[in-house]
Amino acid sequence: MIKVKKAKALAWNSSGYPTSGALVGGGGQTGSRGTKAFARKVNHPGTKAQPYLENALDRYLSSGGFTRAKTALASEVKSKVISDIKKAFKS
Questions:
Q1: End-to-end CA distance of the chain
Q2: I need a surface site. Which of 27, 28, 70, 72 has the fewest CB within 10 A?
Q3: What is the pLDDT of residues 37-73, one digit of tens each?
Q4: CA distances, 79 to each of 23, 67, 70 (Å)
């Protein structure tokens, strides 16, 4: 349940798009995106989960991208460590 706290009413377009001001007062108006609706409280059941990041991670891991990135990082770290050790012995 979503209830009004500081404004006169909650406002939304009947098309589902947000209005120019989320919390406004007044009567219903017709705009370019549908009819504005107003209420002091609404029952919002939420939105079904959309695990697009999880799906992208699964594809990345299964394609071998993570293994290639890990190998490249290890190679870069190894090169840097060896370079720093050589510089330290030259000094």
A1: 70
A2: 27
A3: 888 988 888 889 899 999 999 999 999 999 999 999 9
A4: 58, 18, 14
